[in-house]
Amino acid sequence: MTNPESKVKTKTIEKEKLVAETLNGRFAMLGLVAAIGAYLTTGQIIPGFI
User: Fold this and answer.
1) Residue 50 to residues 1, 5, 37, 46: CA-CA distances in angstroms?
2) Helix (H, G, I), strand (E, B), or coil: what is residue 18?
3) How far apart are CA 15 and CA 37, in angstroms?
4) Rounded Cα gap, residues 9 and 14, in angstroms
């Protein structure tokens, strides 16, 4: 006997979610580069904070 729930279902990814995840990753990379740049130029983790 086979279980009908054991069949593999293909998942479709909506275009909006794919675009949102791509933008999220790009902004995260931009933030990381900005944080490293701020650290290299000022020597502080958070510029202006103590």
Assistant:
1) 69, 59, 18, 9
2) helix
3) 33
4) 16
Tokens of 48: 């202006």
The 10s digit of each residue's pLDDT in 2-43 is: 665 556 666 777 999 999 999 999 999 999 999 899 889 988
Residues contacting residue 38 through CB under 8 Å, at least 6 positions apart: 44, 47
Q: Which tokens sit at 5?
A: 């729930």
Mention every residue, 6+ apart, whose C-beta is less than 8 A from residue 13.
Answer: none
1, 32, 33, 49 from 27: Cα distances, Å? 50, 9, 10, 23
Domain ranges of the chain: 14-41
The answer, yes or no, to whether residue 50 has pLDDT greater than 80, is no
